[in-house]
Amino acid sequence: MELFRVHAYSVSPLRTLDVDAGVPPAGGAVRITASLRAAMETNSADANQAARFPVDFAVDPATRTNEIRELVLDFAFGEASTATAAGRSLAHRLAGAMDRRSLPCLFVPTALREDDKRRVVLWIFPREEAFRLRTAAAESTLEVLSNVFSQKSTHRKAATFQGRHSRSDFLKGRVLDHQANQISRDVADFWIDRFLLCKLSLQAEAGTRLLAKTLKKALEQCEEPADREQLYNSMLAIRTSPRPRISLATFAKRYLGGAASEAFLRSAPNVESRDALFDFRQDTFDTVLQFRVFHLDSGVFVSAPLEEVGESVRVNPKTRELSCSGIIIAEQARARHA
Amino acid sequence: MPDDLRHLYLARRPLLQQVAVSLDQETREALLHVPHIDRIAFRVKGVDSFLAKAADASNQPMYTAPLVEIEDQIAGRVIVFHLDDIGVVLDTLKGTFNAVERYRRRPEKDAEFGYESEHFIATLPPQVLPDAWSDREDLPTTFELQVRTIFMHAYAEPQHDLAYKAVGDLPREIRRELAWIAASAWGADQAYERIARWAATQASLKQPEPE
Predict the structure, then answer these.
(1) In this complex, how many residue pairs, one in chain A and one in chain B, have their CB atoms less than 8 Å apart?
(2) Which candidate from A56, A163, A269 shows the least CB-CB separation from B127?
(3) Nearest in space to B31 (alpha carbons), one of B111, B91, B106, B105
(4) What is the pLDDT of residues A158-208, one digit of tens each?
(5) 8 Å CB contact of B98 and A270
(6) For site-directed labelling of A234, which of A155, A260, A286, B178 has its Cα 20 to 30 A away?
């Protein structure tokens, strides 16, 4: 695809500020030089290597509209003046979605074309301070540059949407956002929810069922007790994790290793679903997995398949006392509970 | 052009079929604990039906890329017992699918009786897409789901079949016969709804007092 449109705006946070107190975004269309084209291609290639996940525009089902989608379409398919108005509106919306915790940034919407198809990539690069050394025979100088923007920062973000100008295209996209699974919901929601007006493509209930089913399949594939124990421990760990937003790939990286991790990832239905982020739901997880976990006042955790509750694991409904009997077939010393 | 389109549609039909099977499974899992589900079924649009829709001049604007734009290439149906169950099903499916459109098909005039169904168009979620899906750019991004009662379905299916076989406009008497069936189905749904509410009240009266 051919890069044919690049705009750039300097954007500072406006959310939670009086509109008059903030600095409105400044910028517009920029000339596409050979070096800029090369830089944007490198950025796209880097973003493709990094974890990217699918999102859908949160479309109003009654009107089938989404404000950001309309602006993205204008930017992709409109004449220069329409694209300029769309770029400016996007920059204003971005400023309105950023609060004081966000770094001022460079917002770069770009558009590429091939036949009747377009691709729009929205980038933000955070502002950083840098030095510039000027060497001279008489005296060298070190200049502090404050209006530079980092292309490699983990705080950079991107969103890609593509297709034709039709009602069924530009509904889905892919996002690069390393903060999307932050514990703070406010930070996590900034790019996808507040600015892009998108939802995760893998919905909470469906994602949690997918995780539970993938774990079950992986358990069937693993015969080594150590691998099975890793999988059981991961089931307990995710239930108490403070980070409720996860993907299958992140789950494998965070909780599994070796053969257990391989069996888990092999059990995913497709490549697309491995990177798809979703919001974990404990109640759905327990229902699908059919496990119950009891936390006793002694600090002991008892994890039981649902069919064993009432059989080898008994709970007195009045005193809430739990008793469990069985023969130990494996044990391990650990520094802490999973 | 239609020959090309036929060939292109048939070539990708196995992929669509795989997605339909996965969507069926996702829908069943999502509705596992929802009562009053009569049946769930998904299908891939037949090639003749697809070609007819692609060439239908009544679609304004006309499809320019029907392989991508036609949204019921993969479609599903959930049949429920009562009118109130339709809302329960649609609310439950929000946890699994991202809706882009939702509308109720019903006769325009209050005094008319005819086809009624709740239509729901959603994006295809990532877990149902076969790996070969990402290799192609001529595939749909959405699917359609219809949610209706047994009586709505009892009217719609034979009516669709009969109307499809008819040559030209239906005679007045036949249209009146169909309207009578639709009115009877509508009345039956209303009556069942009243009975279901009465039964729910009875059930709540039978609840034992908490200790």
Answers:
(1) 95
(2) A269
(3) B91
(4) 999 999 999 999 999 999 988 888 877 777 888 999 999 999 999 999 999
(5) no
(6) A155
pLDDT tens digits, residue range A62-81?
999 999 999 999 999 999 99
Chain B residues close to A203, C-beta within 8 Å:
94-98, 125
The ipTM value here is 0.86
Cβ pair A246, A188 in contact under 8 A = no
For an interface test with A, which of B127, B129, B133, B139 has the most A Cβ atoms less than 10 Å from its Cβ? B127
Q: Decide which of 3.40.50.1260, 3.30.460.10, 3.40.50.720, 3.30.420.130 is the CATH code for B2-206.
A: 3.30.460.10
- Chain A nearest C-alpha distance from B44 (Å): 18
Phi first, then psi: give them for residue A102, nearest 5 degrees.
-80, 140
Pair (A271, A303) in one structural domain: yes
User: Closest to A199 (Cβ–Cβ): which among B26, B64, B98?
Assistant: B98
pLDDT tens profile B175-203: 888 899 999 999 999 999 999 999 989 88
Nearest to A159 by CA among A171, A181, A179, A175: A175
B123/A172 CB distance under 8 A: yes
Q: Supply the pTM of this predicted model.
A: 0.86
How confident is the model over A316-328, as pLDDT tens digits? Answer: 878 889 999 888 8
Tokens matching residue B6: 């036929």
- Whether the CB of A56 is below 8 Å from some CB of chain B: the reply is yes
Q: Give me A195's structure tokens.
A: 């600015």
Q: Are B124 and B144 in contact (CB under 8 A)?
A: no
Write down the domain spans for chain B.
2-206
Measured from the Cβ of residue B194, the count of other Cβ atoms closer than 10 Å reads: 10
Query: What domain range is A186 assigned to?
Result: 2-200
Considering only CA atoms, which of A307, A325, A309 is closest in space to residue A317? A309
Q: How confident is the model at residue A217 (pLDDT cuts 50, 70, 90)?
A: very high
Over residues A207-225, the mean pLDDT reads 92
Instruction: Give the C-alpha distances (Å, rounded to integers) separating B21 from A7, B43, B91, B129.
Output: 44, 8, 22, 11
